[in-house]
Write a sequence for this structure.
């Protein structure tokens, strides 16, 4: 199964950003590579693994905006979009989530970053300062 996952990840990298004839040409070369190594029987598993790789990549593109209350979300969307622009994630899908452990503010979480602009973080930092 590891080999199928590796082939799926390779296929994802090879096909990334390609379309049309170039996409078809690369898929044909990939199949030739599998046959030359005697791995064509792995193709069904590679396809299943490829679907998982695509789903993981899609989820990495999502960003979760966590706020304390539903009515707070509108107030922080503009600020969250500024943060996304600064980290180079302008095309990311922004999903909203209610996090009752937040006192105020918001936090953003993506597959590869976390931005915390909440009062909870500031209160924890104050507590650590006072108790140190």
């Amino acid at each position: 199964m590891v080999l199928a996952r590796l082939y799926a990840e390779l296929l994802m990298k090879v096909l990334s950003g390609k379309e049309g004839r170039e996409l078809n040409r690369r898929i044909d070369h990939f199949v030739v590579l599998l046959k030359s190594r005697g791995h064509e029987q792995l193709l069904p598993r590679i396809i299943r693994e490829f679907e998982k790789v695509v789903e993981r990549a899609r989820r990495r593109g999502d960003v979760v905006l966590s706020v304390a209350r539903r009515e707070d979300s509108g107030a922080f969307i503009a600020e969250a979009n500024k943060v996304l622009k600064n980290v180079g994630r302008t095309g990311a899908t922004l999903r909203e989530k209610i996090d009752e452990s937040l006192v105020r503010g918001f936090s953003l979480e993506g597959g590869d970053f976390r931005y915390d602009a909440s009062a909870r973080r500031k209160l924890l930092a104050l507590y650590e300062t006072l108790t140190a």
Notes: The helical segments are 2-15, 20-36, 43-61, 73-86, 119-131.
